């Protein structure tokens, strides 16, 4: 439940937000890290900020936390301006940086108690919250273990517990699954989804790992060269980007049956049918959207599945190929058609916007300066209701 501060509006709002870092000389225009960024994150929603290293994601997060001021535009977090009211924002926002800083010689519980003390949380309440948060992230068994013995995944989980210690309304996660093994990734993604649903948190996830973003995010924003070039649900982005292009639907039957191929071929929205990788799999090229019951638009995959089930065939799997976040990303940045740029020349525009910028994350790191280096420790200094952080 919201605790005041523009409860009816978005939890995070950015309007025309820009950040330019000055160059070494007056003649040098410097680095435009973020260029007129506009987006919002609603309560109970997971929004994925997706882009390559150096796109400006970390700079955006620093502006939302009040750790660096925008050059122009405005941001609001729970109704507060991070540039003018940074303490009000930090009291209500939990932050997990991409590199989590803990004292290795302290136990998991001792690290959380230290953070609670910095945030002005009373000792009894701090002990209760520390135990509760460790249980929430699945680390109760390791509460007395020194953090120096933790794996990367365990440290990330402890980082989430630390970010939740102040009972925030907004959670900002910067590359939360980076360097974690596959099982740890699954656990982390499930935890993030659970937190957004059960606690009603607004969650902003920054990442360059496409399949993970698609798995948990309600909406995504594609970020490149400091600009947000697209935002929405993956399905909306696919429909907007691919338009009326045909869709390939792969269906896997419980058992091989030649009659299923004939049944699919007779459907009015199916252009052709061909065998898949095994006798039980068929691939159909369908019109992008087919008329459903009552003449309403309908997804061809769902229509095909209904038709097969009604005809008495058992389906064990169905997928729409070429419409996932990987394909959207490829179309925007690489160009999906031979000899052509991405639709709308977005790939070319991205390269133009990115010209002269540091590569492989250097833009964000250079832009953050010393803040980037110590942001893991600064997170501990985000004040709670105590006011000054002690």
Q: What secondary-structure arrangement, pairings included, does this model have?
A:
Blueprint: E1 12-21, E2 31-41, E3 46-50, H1 57-64, E4 72-77, H2 86-90, E5 93-96, H3 108-118, H4 123-136, H5 152-164, E6 170-174, H6 182-199, E7 202-207, H7 210-216, E8 219-224, E9 227-232, H8 234-242, E10 247-253, H9 258-265, E11 270-275, E12 281-286, E13 290-291, E14 297-298, H10 300-310, E15 315-321, H11 325-333, H12 346-354, H13 362-368, H14 370-380
Parallel strand pairs: 3-7, 3-8, 5-6, 6-7
Antiparallel strand pairs: 1-2, 1-4, 8-9, 10-12, 10-15, 11-12, 13-14
Helix pairs in contact: 1-13, 3-4, 4-5, 13-14
Protein model, in words:
This protein has a 6-stranded mixed beta sheet, with helices on both faces. Strands 11-12-10-15 form a 4-stranded antiparallel beta sheet, covered by helices on one side. A 3-stranded antiparallel beta sheet has the order 2-1-4, covered by helices on one side. The radius of gyration is 24 Å and the shape is globular. With 390 residues, it is α/β, with parallel strands linked by helices. Helix content is 36%, strand content 23%. The protein folds into 2 domains: 12-225 and 359-380, Rossmann fold, CATH 3.40.50; 242-321, 2-Layer Sandwich (Alpha-Beta Plaits), CATH 3.30.70.100. The chain is built from 14 helices and 15 strands.
């Amino acid at each position: 439940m919201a605790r005041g501060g523009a409860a009816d509006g978005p939890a995070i709002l950015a309007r025309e937000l820009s950040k330019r870092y000055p160059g070494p000389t007056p003649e040098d225009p410097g680095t435009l890290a973020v260029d007129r960024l506009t987006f919002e994150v609603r309560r109970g929603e997971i929004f994925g900020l997706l882009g390559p290293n150096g796109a400006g994601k970390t700079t955006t997060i620093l502006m939302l936390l009040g750790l660096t001021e925008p050059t122009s535009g405005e941001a609001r977090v729970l109704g507060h301006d991070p540039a003018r009211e940074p303490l009000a924002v930090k009291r209500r926002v939990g932050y997990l940086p991409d590199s989590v800083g803990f004292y290795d010689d302290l136990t998991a519980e001792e690290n959380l108690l230290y953070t609670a003390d910095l945030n002005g949380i009373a000792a009894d309440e701090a002990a209760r919250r520390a135990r509760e948060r460790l249980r929430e992230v699945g680390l109760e068994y390791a509460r007395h273990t020194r953090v120096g013995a933790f794996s990367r995944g365990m440290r990330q989980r402890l980082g989430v517990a630390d970010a939740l210690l102040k009972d925030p309304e907004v959670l900002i996660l910067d590359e939360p699954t980076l360097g974690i093994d596959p099982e740890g990734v699954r656990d982390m993604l499930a935890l993030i989804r659970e937190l957004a649903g059960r606690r009603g948190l607004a969650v902003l996830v920054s990442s360059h790992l496409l399949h993970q973003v698609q798995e948990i995010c309600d909406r995504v924003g594609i970020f490149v060269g400091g600009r947000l070039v697209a935002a929405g649900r993956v399905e909306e982005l696919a429909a907007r980007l691919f338009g009326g292009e045909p869709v390939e639907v792969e269906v896997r039957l419980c058992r091989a049956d030649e009659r299923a191929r004939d049944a699919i071929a007779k459907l009015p929205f199916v252009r052709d049918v061909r065998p898949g990788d095994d006798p039980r799999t068929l691939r159909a090229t369908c019109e992008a959207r087919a008329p459903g019951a009552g003449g309403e638009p309908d997804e061809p995959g769902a229509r095909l599945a209904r038709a097969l089930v009604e005809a008495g065939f058992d389906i064990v799997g169905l997928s729409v190929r070429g419409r996932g976040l990987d394909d959207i990303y490829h179309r925007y940045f690489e160009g999906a058609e031979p000899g052509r740029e991405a639709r709308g020349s977005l790939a070319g525009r991205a390269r133009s916007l990115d010209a002269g910028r540091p590569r492989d994350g250097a833009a964000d790191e250079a832009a953050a300066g010393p803040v980037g280096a110590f942001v893991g420790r600064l997170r501990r200094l985000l004040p709670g209701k105590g006011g000054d952080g002690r």
